[in-house]
Backbone:
């Protein structure tokens, strides 16, 4: 009865979507529904990137699928190394895009000097120097639905499909691997777990995932319930999930005037601004009631996007790394996911790094990740330490 009263008296604020990308290339074509997942919708040659000397840059638009089975247009940026050999390996690398604005897409920030991308630049340049191509998908989708992790998995897999279908990129018959850290690790992990059912024809040699939030429920509890320096990420994920599930997770209806002001301030923001806007905030500060977390439909949205709770498992070799003392993500959820995958027979190698904070662990694990990926594209037996 109390819950029904809360629902009946909730405010009626509508979800706030990002400003559309002003570049018409990103828009969905009128005949989008006539295309299948992974179909190429557009190709654009891009200027060279100082971050990746010698690489040719190609922006690819393709058809993907949202969390409800509806068609969407998505994009990925492909780096092709100088002297590329046909059918050399392809790495789909998912950057950590903890953002809500279309201007925060990797395809944009590569040209904006975003410092959040530079931590992975040495690793990606090492991949290019080995002759591999790299795909960098905008895995949050056209509405920048941060937190909608299943959506990210679809976009990653469809991006690989699209890249392999373009003859000019010359990767059609080469081995394909995936990697990502933090939010990018989450998209990578979901892509690996969904591949058997969503893209069974894709031949993938393995995926490396690091520091990923395996359970969004416990993540929200850790960052959102009490004041936390990274509360902005929890708030942004709630906004992003509402964009993808407006009927089931009506977050805006439960925000106070202050909460709506914070939401509006971060609605088109990238990572650093989101962290600054939400620093040391909490759900109790921005919500008129905490009852939204008790609504079965709302909670189920968060659970459906929590990999720890997903029964499916990858059928490809996996490499997982994180810091056991990571202060940003609940590591128990990762450990539980590892154990479940091992019990299901996944070829899983895990690595615990000594980094004291979240992003440092990405850099510390990079050499082992590169070595592991190289073994997979060479066809070596995948190690496991379950």
Residues:
């Amino acid at each position: 009865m109390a819950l029904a009263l809360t629902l009946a008296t909730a405010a009626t604020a509508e979800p706030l979507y990002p400003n559309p990308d002003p570049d018409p290339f990103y828009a969905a074509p009128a005949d989008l529904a006539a295309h299948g997942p992974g179909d190429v919708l557009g190709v654009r040659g891009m200027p060279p990137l100082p971050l990746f000397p010698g690489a040719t840059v190609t922006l690819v638009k393709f058809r993907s699928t949202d969390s409800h089975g509806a068609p969407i247009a998505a994009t990925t940026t492909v780096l092709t190394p100088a002297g590329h050999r046909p059918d050399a390996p392809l790495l789909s690398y998912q950057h950590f895009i903890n953002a809500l604005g279309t201007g925060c897409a990797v395809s944009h920030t590569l040209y904006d000097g975003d410092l959040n991308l530079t931590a992975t630049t040495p690793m990606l340049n090492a991949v290019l120097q080995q002759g591999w191509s790299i795909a960098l998908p905008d895995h949050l989708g056209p509405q920048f639905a941060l937190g909608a992790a299943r959506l990210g998995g679809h976009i990653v897999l469809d991006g690989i499909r699209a890249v392999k279908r373009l003859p000019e990129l010359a990767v059609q018959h080469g081995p394909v691997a995936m990697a990502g850290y933090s939010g990018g690790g989450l998209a990578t992990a979901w892509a690996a777990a969904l591949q058997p059912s969503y893209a069974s024809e894709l031949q993938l040699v393995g995926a490396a995932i690091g520091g990923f939030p395996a359970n969004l429920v416990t993540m929200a509890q850790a960052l959102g319930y009490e004041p936390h320096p990274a509360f902005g990420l929890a708030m942004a994920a709630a906004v992003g999930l509402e964009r993808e599930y407006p009927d089931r997770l009506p977050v805006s209806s439960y925000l106070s005037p202050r909460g709506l002001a914070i939401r509006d301030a971060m609605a088109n923001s990238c990572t650093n601004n989101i962290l600054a806007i939400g620093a040391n905030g909490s759900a109790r500060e921005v919500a008129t009631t905490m009852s939204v977390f008790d609504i079965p439909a709302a909670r189920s949205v968060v659970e459906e996007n929590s990999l720890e709770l997903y029964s499916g498992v990858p059928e490809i070799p996996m490499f997982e790394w994180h810091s056991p003392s990571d202060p940003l993500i609940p590591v128990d959820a990762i450990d539980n996911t590892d154990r479940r995958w091992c019990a299901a027979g996944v070829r899983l190698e895990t690595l615990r790094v000594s980094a004291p904070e979240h992003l440092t662990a990405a850099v510390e694990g990079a050499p082992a990740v590169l070595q592991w990926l190289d073994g997979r594209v060479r066809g070596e037996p995948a190690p496991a330490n379950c």
Summary: Residues 31-215+312-377 form a domain with the Rossmann fold fold (CATH 3.40.50.1820). The longest strand covers residues 56-65. The longest helix spans residues 358-377.
